[in-house]
Design a protein that fits this description.
The chain is mainly beta and about 220 residues long. It contains three helices and 15 strands. Helix content is about 10%, strand content about 30%. The strands form four sheets. It has a six-stranded mixed sheet. Strands 4-15-14-11-12 form a five-stranded mixed sheet, with no helix packed on it.
Length: about 220
């Protein structure tokens, strides 16, 4: 197991739409959408997910996340094979997202860029401050991804519904950003949550064979 904490994480890259269950079934993008997560939006395992009073319809997003290995001057415009070799291992992230309206979110199509802009969206931490040193193809198929709110499973899916392999996704990101050691790429989630964090006490995100991430939930006055 490898150590990873807020001080050692480099660029945090998030992908959306990589699971077929997280988009309209009649929509097949050429590549998933990509954005970078600001450092202030990352919190460790065990720290409360603090929900401001004006935020509503908040859902968890359990995601497998890739940790990039030492690749010298960086991984840039990599082939799929080079991308696979650059995977150090996997951890777990929680792409907490506000679906409801709130200040600075006047239009529905701004969710991707602004719905995660608070310090607590998304929450992220490697499980127990570590990652699992697995090969790039270790979770490509038949790996369960779940979220549990107060003991109830609200997201349950599988990496079988990912439209790209992990190596393909890493190679795609490398065509946009030069990836360095301990950069993290969160690969997306199966979506279709059946519960909200609005009145919850705790949320657990699990990725089979990788680990689980637990955070309490706190509603602010």
């Amino acid at each position: 197991m490898g150590e990873l904490d807020l001080d050692t994480i480099g660029t945090f890259v998030a992908l959306g739409g990589s699971f077929s269950t997280h988009r309209r079934m009649d929509s097949q993008p050429e590549w998933p959408i990509l954005w970078t997560v600001p450092k202030q939006a990352i919190i460790p395992e065990g720290e409360p997910i603090q929900l401001p009073p004006y935020v509503e319809d908040v859902v968890p997003g359990p995601e497998p996340a890739v940790v990039i290995d030492d690749v010298g001057e960086g991984l840039f415009r990599a082939s799929v094979e080079e991308a696979a070799d650059a995977v150090k291992g996997f951890t777990v992230s929680n792409d907490v997202t506000a679906k409801g309206k709130f200040p600075a979110y006047p239009y529905p199509d701004q969710e991707g860029s602004l719905g995660r802009g608070y310090k607590i969206f998304p929450t992220f931490s490697p499980t127990l401050s570590r990652y699992e040193p697995l090969a790039a193809d270790a979770i490509d198929t038949d790996t369960t991804v779940e979220a549990v709110i107060d003991g109830e499973t609200v997201v349950s899916g599988s990496t079988d519904t990912m439209d790209w392999t992990v190596a393909e996704l890493v190679a795609h990101v490398s065509k946009i950003l030069r990836l360095q050691e301990n950069d993290v790429i969160s690969l997306g989630d199966p979506s279709q949550p059946t519960g909200y964090l609005d009145d919850a006490s705790e949320v657990i995100c699990r990725v089979e064979n990788v680990g689980e991430l637990t955070n309490p939930v706190q509603r602010l006055d």
